[in-house]
Design goal:
It is built from two helices and four strands; from the N terminus they run ββββαα. With 97 residues, it is an alpha+beta fold. The protein has one domain.
Length: 97
């Protein structure tokens, strides 16, 4: 998987995924944002990084604060698109630009 902004953004966006099926000897490429699939945000990034990652503590704090907002869509599947999350935060939590 390739994420745009993985090292710098609290919610990086999935841009490319490669699926390898060893049994069938096939490789599938999925292009997010530039092809047939919409980019997917990576929520809860602190679960896939460790303490040696730059700004690990900041990411954990961000994820904890996001979790505390009790947004039901974040608990379902991949979660909302980044645009929908922004709209939810504006409506329900007073987010401003």
């Amino acid at each position: 998987m390739t994420y745009e902004g993985f090292a710098t953004q609290p919610i990086p966006m999935l841009r490319e995924r490669v699926k390898i099926n060893l049994r069938q000897r096939t490789v599938d490429f999925f292009d997010y944002g530039y092809g047939d699939y919409d980019p997917q945000p990576l929520y809860w990034k602190s679960q896939v990084i460790d303490a040696s990652f730059h700004d690990y503590d900041k990411q954990q704090s961000f994820d904890k604060r996001l979790s505390g907002l009790n947004i039901p869509e974040l608990a379902e599947g991949h979660g909302p698109s980044l645009e929908n999350l922004t709209a939810l935060l504006r409506i329900n939590h007073g987010l401003t630009d």
